[in-house]
Specification:
11 strands; two-stranded antiparallel ribbon; elongated; Rossmann fold; alpha/beta
Length: 378
């Protein structure tokens, strides 16, 4: 590897000789550049372009690496970030700024302008072509799909929080990571707010302010009923039937649920669950929740874990594909189910019971179907 590189599993590699010969300030610019390939999914996009346009071989992958570099480098440096020596930008190829990798790829071929770039190699994380040094899917410290989505979400949130200090290309990227609110997302937020604001939810007696009725009972101090911020337990289905993309979506919904209850993340707990429930995690940052699992599904254990929390939740939100047994009895608190839809023709099948159809969520739960189109609720 000539300089630094990344692979498709989000590992970073570095040439010791290259690192030794560069100042720290320039190395920082190189690392930002390499990580940018990962955040922008250049390896996945390169694979799609290769399939769609019939592009094969190392030379075409080099073109993809160059085009991806142009997308990043047209506005990445400055404001304290040193531009690395030899960084390729659109001007080098006599092309305009502000375009995407796919656009640049249509506008140049390998030739006179690019002959000095034969050394360029940002790794499989930039163009999708596996390298000899890659550790592969079974190597150490690779990130899963939902972990990658969580990192993207965190970076995009930071950019959106301070849009005035971010380059235009990064603002455009962050806006795409945060999809516009879908109707189903509004429905889910409304269902959570309804569950946590209904009579009895979040109410308790306190002696912090005596009841006005104490005036009629000399010598006896009566507690008053006061509303406290509601607590929400989120049970996330991490069974094998739930895709990595849906788990990534679940992380986004956890953050939305926290906003629906006033932004108090300390009042939201998360219980990952497949056939058994894991430990309940207090929500400090949604991307820090380990969504482990991958086995069968029995969310009854997740319900039990959530309801045993101390203090008890005022509402339970379940994010699942619905292919699970449900509790026989209604919980003491309100329940909202965010349902990842499944086509029945492609759903669960049991060899011992070919007619098996998963139970629908119980009538006592408010159900919101989470889908890419308009949402539905019941």
């Amino acid at each position: 590897m000539p300089t630094m590189a990344v692979d498709t599993h989000w590992r970073c590699y570095a040439s010791p000789v290259f690192v030794d010969r560069r100042p720290v300030e320039e190395l920082a610019g190189v690392w930002v550049h390499e990580v940018s390939h990962l955040l922008r999914d250049h390896h996945g996009r390169s694979d799609r372009v290769a399939r769609e346009r019939g592009l094969t071989g190392p030379a075409e992958r080099l073109r993809m690496n160059i085009a991806a570099d142009c997308e990043i480098n047209d506005d990445a440096f400055g404001d304290g970030l040193v531009r690395p020596e030899g960084a390729v930008d659109p001007a080098f190829l006599q092309l305009p700024d502000g375009q995407l990798m796919e656009d640049y790829l249509r506008q140049f071929r390998l030739g006179r302008l690019t002959e000095s770039l034969a050394w360029l190699d940002c790794g499989s994380g930039a163009d999708g072509l596996e390298r000899d040094w890659d550790l592969g899917p079974d190597g150490a410290d690779g990130l899963s799909e939902q972990e990658r989505d969580a990192v993207r979400f965190r970076v995009a949130r930071g950019i959106n929080a301070r849009p005035g200090s971010a380059p235009k290309g990064w603002r455009r990227w962050a806006e795409k990571v945060f999809h516009p609110p879908q109707p189903w997302r509004e429905l889910l937020g409304a269902a959570v707010r309804s569950a946590t604001s209904s009579g009895g939810a979040g109410e308790d007696y306190t002696y912090g302010r005596p009841s006005r009725r104490s005036a009629g009972t000399p010598g006896v101090v009566l507690p008053s009923l006061r509303r406290r911020p509601p607590r929400v337990a989120v049970v996330i289905d991490t069974s094998g039937s739930v895709s990595d993309a849906e788990l990534g979506s679940a992380l986004l919904e956890v953050a939305a649920i926290a906003r629906a209850v006033g932004g108090r993340r300390d009042l939201v707990s998360v219980v990952p669950c497949d056939a058994s429930a894991r430990a309940a995690h207090s929500l400090c940052r949604a991307e820090g929740i380990p969504l482990t699992g991958g086995g069968g599904t029995d969310l009854r254990t997740g319900f039990a874990k959530a309801l045993r929390s101390s203090p008890a939740p005022d509402a339970v939100v379940v994010l699942t594909d619905g292919q699970t047994p449900w509790p026989d009895t209604r919980p003491a608190c309100r329940t909202v189910v965010g349902l990842f839809p499944r086509e029945r023709s492609n759903g669960s099948w049991d060899e011992d019971d070919p007619e098996y159809v998963p139970d629908t969520p119980p009538e006592w739960a408010r159900v919101v179907v989470i889908e890419s189109g308009p949402g539905t609720a019941r």
